[in-house]
Write a structure and sequence with these properties.
Cofactor: thiamine diphosphate
Protein name: Transketolase
Number of helices: 9
Shape: globular
Order of helices and strands: HHEHHEHEEEHHEHEH
Helix content: 40-55%
Radius of gyration: 18 Å
Pfam family, one: Transketolase_N
CATH class: Alpha Beta
Strand content: 5-15%
Keywords: Thiamine pyrophosphate
CATH architecture: 3-Layer(aba) Sandwich
GO molecular function: magnesium ion binding
Length: 283
């Protein structure tokens, strides 16, 4: 599969994240950009969704457990056609539908209010169990952050999903190694992550989470796994795609200068131009 168009979509989504930061003056950029390749691949190449019918009962579901990374989901939802992209210019404004965390009452495509860290996996497990009980073939995808794994509710959800053999559930853990108060290994080391989920009875896959080919391969593996849920341990880079911010704690919640925003946008535009040239020439 030629994934260059998907890579371009991911870069266009990065531009939308920067557009929101410009509108609001700040935002949780680091985690949004570390997981945006995953979110792009899911919405554009994996999930069965219809932006014109966001409540279609046969849809696949997506939950962003790490709700503070909401700009990633917003950036992709707009690109996918769930709402007009001019909405990005309201980010950070009073009454905006684009809150700091996802709100299902304000925006189409949001399945649950998230951001109280540690709860997304349990919600996703409940959804997956309900879909199976209803004879619905829909799948449930969720993205967790490595910094939220110490929350105990994650492991209740992991137990429930394994016990009920929820093979319609795929959880991505965005392992960017940083959280608001420092490196995750120093704040609360949860490694080895894959081994912990395996001990609960999950199928485990470890990938480069900023590689769209790897993301699609992981979903394909999960689709072939019967009788147990799959966790994808996605090794990523905080603020991926902005060279002067990558892997920095400062990117977790970024308050840029105008010059920094301009520089970041130029970098992304340059990559889009290169990818389009590559794709047009069939390289």
């Amino acid at each position: 599969m030629n994934t260059v168009p998907l890579q371009i979509e991911a870069e266009l989504a990065r531009l939308n994240v920067l557009r929101m930061v410009r509108a609001g003056g700040s935002g949780h950029l680091g985690g949004a950009l570390s997981c945006i390749d995953i979110v792009t691949a899911l919405y554009f190449a994996t999930m069965r969704v219809n932006p014109q019918a966001p409540k279609d009962p046969n849809r696949d579901r997506f939950l962003l457990s790490a709700g503070h990374k909401a700009m990633a989901q917003y950036a992709v939802l707009g690109r996918r056609g769930y709402f007009e992209e001019t909405l990005y210019d309201t980010y950070g404004s009073v009454g905006s539908k684009l809150g700091g965390h996802p709100d299902l009452h304000k925006l189409p495509g949001i399945e649950a209010n998230t951001g109280a860290l540690g709860h997304g996996l349990s919600i996703a497990a409940g959804m997956a169990l309900g879909l199976r009980a209803a004879g619905n073939g829909g799948r449930v995808f969720t993205v967790l952050g490595d910094g939220e794994l110490p929350e105990g509710a994650n492991w209740e959800g992991a137990s429930i999903a394994a016990h009920h053999r929820l093979d319609n559930l795929v959880a991505f853990v965005d392992v960017n190694d940083l959280q608001i108060s420092g490196p995750t290994a120093e704040v609360m080391n949860m490694e080895p992550i894959a081994d912990k989920f395996a001990a609960f009875g999950w199928n485990t896959v470890t990938i480069d989470g900023n590689d769209i080919d790897a993301v699609l391969g992981a979903v394909s593996t999960a689709d072939g796994e019967k009788g147990r849920p799959t966790v994808v341990v996605a090794r990523t880079t905080k603020a991926k795609g902005i060279s002067f911010l990558e892997g920095t704690l400062a990117s977790h919640y970024w308050k840029p200068t105008v010059e920094e925003l301009d520089r970041a946008e130029r970098e992304v535009h340059a990559r889009i131009d290169n990818l389009r040239e590559w794709n047009d020439h069939g390289c």
